[in-house]
Amino acid sequence: MIDVSVIVVSHNDERDLPVSVGSAVAQRGVSVETLVVDNSSTDRSRSVVADMAPAARLMALSENVGFAGAMNRGIRETTGRYVLALNPDCRLSSDFAAILAARLDARAEFGSASGRILRGSGEQLTATPVLDSAGIFRTATGRHFDRGSSHFANGRYLVEEPVFGTSGAAGFYRRAALESAKISTGYFDSDFFLYREDADLAWRLQNLGWKCLYVPDAVGYHRRRNLPERRSAMPPLVNMHSVKNRFLLRINNQTPAECIVTLIPTLARDAVVVGACLTIERSSLPAFSWLWKNRQRLWAKRREIQRKVKERRREISAERGRLPVKDAEAGRE
């Protein structure tokens, strides 16, 4: 059986693919399959991957279905016990997959893992002293961020510990956890198209009882394109999806209790977003019409997710009820 399926979603990434895919096929200590799902690129991306055959396979799509949709197709096409969702602008150390697979093999309650991702620079994604992500965390007001993002590493985040979720730059998932989290729109919710889909999956996995483990010994390097301070320079379509997805996150996953606790800061942030869309970023206004047009389907999907969460929690409760007392207590730690 394949240990790790590395899936790279590309769209006009011919310059980055040799480095990212090269680091995927160079993984050591585990059996790896590498699949590149190409979102209808118009550059030489497909030729670059073809030149790497048979070490890497290519799935060429006739249309751009977004990161989430393409990743879902890649997950269905692969067989590894673990899935590594790798961005084309991310390079992995050669033992990245082996370290995370070993840690999750030893911790059955963890459904995903995050490595220590540093910022990469230049075409070779050369290491910099700046952190990109030490896993995703949630604030008391319900917002999500990459831990340590844009700060100098300086020996920070060197302790292995649970976190809220793993960054989509190099997200490592137990396939069994992905199967339990799969909904009508896929493992990753294809409604997100791009951006925030990793936070959505992290939230869903948490609600389903799967933990995420941060493992600092697994190191990668990522050239991050989308940062708050660069928003004005990002393509309008990207910003529109970012606005849309902030509301999708809550529709999918937020409980009534969480809504009440975070209501005031959430409404304040929403007011700022709506105001910006009405004034300086009018290209993002279609996000609201999309949400309204799809409101019935989105609420049906929310009910689907909440049913899945309730079923999973009943399963966990039943499993713990069958365990000896000491084993059940260990499962709650």
Overview of the structural elements:
This protein has 333 residues and is an alpha/beta fold. It is 42% helix and 23% strand. It has 12 helices and 12 strands. Strands 1, 2, 3, 4, 5, 6, 7, 10, 11 and 12 form a 10-stranded mixed beta sheet that branches. It has a two-stranded antiparallel sheet with strand order 8-9. Strand 6 (110-121) and strand 7 form a beta hairpin. Helix 7 crosses helix 11. The longest helix has 28 residues, at 295-322. The protein is globular, with a radius of gyration of 20 Å. The chain starts with a strand and ends with a helix. The model is unreliable at 328-333 (pLDDT under 50).
Rg over C-alpha atoms, rounded to the nearest angstrom: 20 Å
Strand content: 15-25%
What shape does the CA trace take? globular
Tell me roughly what share of residues is in helical segments: 40-55%
Q: How many strands?
A: 12
Main sheet specs? 10 strands, mixed
The overall pLDDT, averaged over residues, is: 92
Structural class: alpha/beta
